[in-house]
Every structure is written in structure tokens, then in C-alpha cells.
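Researcher: Please translate sequence to C-alpha cells.
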Amino acid sequence: MEFHDPDYTPDAFEVRVSELLVATPEASDELIDHAVPEVLRMIREHLKMDVVFVSEFTEGRRVFRRVDTSPTARVIEVGQSSPLEESFCQRVIDGRLPNLVRDLKQEPAFPELPPTDFPIGAHLSTPVVLNDGRVYGTLCCFSFAPNPDLTARDMKKLELSAQLAARKINDKLNQATDKAMANWSLEPQATPLRKR
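Model: Translation complete:
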């Protein structure tokens, strides 16, 4: 097994996401906050996609938590949701749809896919997996037209970006837990004794 490929040179996208992944949360939480939208924009532009989003799976729905679109492709917005079972995201997670699709109409599963309000030509999707192993949701992107130029390396870039999103979500969950724990105590609460 070779760990170093002498012909491999990371591009600017991979370098930027790697920098954000190794940044320490204490020193760079604000940097990471601002980095997620930047990374989504970079994904969309680099992969020539119309839409990129981070979704959360909650209560049987897919909720769009972060969205970046090209100016002419505002087809979804933050906060919108739809039934999870009707989403491409769920189909990727459970294996009914591959995570990299260059031309959706050529996909064997195409006839069984739910109708969409807009055309989807190419589609990439990867799970956002939290530290405890739970699938938070997905990081997905799509274009209205097919894209035969998409590669496994493009999929790796999406996966790297999903790691960044998972790290950010984990940090927020840990902060919320720490805040809740700060107010919690095992000490018995003193209750006044009643006089008889």
C-alpha cells in the first residue's frame, strides 16, 4: 500500500478544506462558521453545479440547513423541507442511488425516482456523519444538466467537505451539551422543612 503519491498535488480547494479541518475549534470557531458557506460556494463553482446544500434528517424529513446556488438557480432555500423518503439523499444513504451520478436519466433507478420541480442532470451526495456514528444528513450538489466530467476525485472533495460540516455540527452539539451540563448538578436540592 502506497501512502504517498508523488504525482498527486492538491488543488486550492483541497488545501483550503484541509486547513479548516486541522484548525482548532477554540482558536478558529468563527473561522469555521464563516468557512462552511465558503466551502459550499467553492464546491458549487469547482464542480460546475447549480445547487449545493447541507441537509439534516429529522422527524422523517430532509431539512435544508445550508444552501448555495448559482444566481439563476434559486430552487431551494434554507429551512425548506420535504419528506425524507422522497429525497435523493435517502436513496443515496440506503444504496438505492449511487453517490455520484453524471447523467440521472441514464441511471437504472431513474424511473423509480420521485418527480422534482426542476431538472436534475448530475448529482453528488455523501452522508454527514457525526462523531457518535449518527448520520446527521447529507452534503449534496446537483446541476440541471448532465456532467460527464465528474470524477471520483470530485466525490472525494465532497466527502472532505462533509467532514468539515460534521466537525462544525459536532462542535455546536458539544457547546450545547456543555452549556446544559453547567447548570446540572448531582447535589441534593435543599427543601425547606415544614413545621407541624
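Researcher: Any highlights?
Model: The chain has four helices and six strands.
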